[in-house]
Amino acid sequence: MANSGKSPDFDAVVIGAGFAGLGMLRRLREELGMSVQVYETGDEVGGTWYWNRYPGARCDSESYIYCFSFSKELLQDWNWSGKYPEQPEILAYLNHVADRFDLRRNIQFNTRVTSARFLENANLWEVETDQGDRVTAQFLITAIGCISAGNVPDIKGLDSFQGEWYHTGSWPHDKVDFAGKRVAVIGTGSSGVQSIPVIAQQAGHLTVFQRTAQFTIPARHGTVDRKFLEEEVKPHYAEILEKAKWSAAGFPLDPSERSALEVTAEERLETYEAGWAKGGFGFVFGSYSDIRTDRRANDTVSEFIRSKIREMVKDPETAEKLLPTDHPFGSKRTLIDTDYFDTYNRENVELVDIRHSPIREITPKGIRTEDEEYEFDIIVFATGFDAMTGTFFKMDIRGRNDLSLKEKWSEGPKTYLGLQTAGFPNMFMITGPGSPSVLGNMPVCIEQHIEWIADFLQYMRERDIGAVEADADAEAAWVSHVNETAEPTMFMLANSWYLGANIPGKPRVFMPYAGGVGNYRKKCNEIADNGYEGFILDSGSRGKAASAT
Ligand code: N01
Fold first, then answer.
1. Between β-strands 373-375 and 107-108, what pairing exists: parallel, antiparallel or unpaired?
2. Which residues approach ligand 1 with their CB closer than 6 A?
């Protein structure tokens, strides 16, 4: 229904009901008294954790730190069962949050936002959905996730395949039965590395198609350590979360300050072995400060992991194919696995190196590479996402002068702090490109954005400011800063989705902010303290919704 008068239908429209959308809704409704409409494509809350239901899906952050922090009671009441939270449990947690804080009443499910247009004369956004809604709101807030537009590669012949095929990022709700089947998995990123060991246990035969061999660290997954949780975490949650907020990647870890090059080879080996035995991201942050910035330091850890792969994989030919030699450790997303390399010791698992023998086509019966045809009942695409910008481009978002976001970002995303983009007033992005989110622990990054945006909206209300917009010069300076920050890191040395390299034709631009979660928070706070420096504050007409619900 269109808005006919001056007042908008809602103060804010939020797109998405995952961690970000739920948290933003609660904050705006409960603490700012705003009327909020959330639109969600799925039929439930959960976002990433609603769609990614593939076998083995779990988070790489430890469960005690993968949560909302806004409610002390919630932190104390919720009990995770796994050291790393598994997808069904994260989904249960988000459902619990939605129920406990009565969030569903402002969420319209099964509804995809198709377009959003800024009405310049009214300082309002007009939002349309595939269900025929047409509503106005003063603020448009995207909570659409960074890694949510699935990428099924355009391989000739997929339509002709007579078996079943799935993408890990839009996995069916009903159990996929792999028992006795001939299964292919294409892709060895986080999703592939998690699903391959689980599928291997169920399938008759599993063939993994690998384009790039990966470095991966053992998770050392298990049930949650209850004593640790009750004695070391719950009584100290406030301090733990505070530490995570100001850390490099959103984890309450003490990063090593030593260089890998200032110690002896024996000492380095000891450190790497200890980190390997402990597992998880602690291996990275607890070892040496320069393994992510100095190539010689990085070589020591890269070689250590390669030696582990050689040790774990019994067949030397398979081990050789699994050795990552074309990019340094940490230049792609660091992977955390459970039994990944051991899986290749199973009789029913085969590895095909498609770097040397690329896939030519999918046939009615399976997959044909340069060298051979393989027959399958099921193909799993663990081929990743059109990350950070793909989901934005599925909607027609238009700012001032009818400029479309797709057009504005045609050479790569341009944002100020990853929170706003010039020419799109009153549109805020949670974990947008140019923010550090995908390089850190997501809930910590998401909550920082939620709090910062809510504070800004409150500031606007108190001063009767109708619209705010990133200044084009401030945005250009931020984009340069994002690039400069990434330049000296390992991130520039691999073809990763951080650089858009996984999507043919996508501009090669490093999209996240690599300066650290804590440093980023500090910058955002300074900008707010300086009266929202770099934003144009327009005290023109203010479109407050008639009533808050
Ligand atoms: O996707 P990816 P993902 N032909 O892009 C290969 C988050 N996440 O879904 O490396 C053949 O990492 C591609 O090969 P290459 C996390 O941030 C988190 O696994 O480009 N192969 C690669 O091996 C993660 O980084 C969690 O050469 C093709 C794979 O497919 C992000 O999501 C769990 C191909 C894609 O790997 C994405 O992870 C899961 C083609 N045409 C995901 N195109 C946790 O927290 C791509 N590939 C645990």
1. unpaired
2. 58-60, 147, 153, 168, 186-192, 194, 211-212, 333, 354, 382-385, 438, 495, 497, 502
Which atom of ligand 1 is closest in space to residue 333's alpha carbon?
25
- Does the residue 493 lie in any domain? yes
Burial class (CB in 10 A: 0-12, 13-18, 19+), 395: buried
| 348-374 pLDDT tens trace | 999 999 999 999 999 999 999 999 999
Taking alpha carbons only, the member of 471, 490, 484 closest to residue 535 is: 471
H/E element, 124: strand 124-129
For residue 538, the CA-to-ligand 1 centroid distance in Å is 42
Please report the atom of ligand 1 found closest to the CA of residue 384.
1
Q: What is the pLDDT of residue 545?
A: 58
Q: Which residue's alpha carbon is nearest to atom 44 within ligand 1?
A: 59
pLDDT digits (tens, 9 = 90+) for 177-212: 999 999 999 999 999 999 999 999 999 999 999 999
For residue 482, what are the domain limits? 10-149+387-538
Please name the amino acid found at residue 540: G
* Residue 433 domain flag: yes
pLDDT > 90? residue 55: yes
Q: What is the pLDDT of residue 540?
A: 53
Count structural domains, the chain: 1
Q: Is residue 215 part of a domain?
A: no
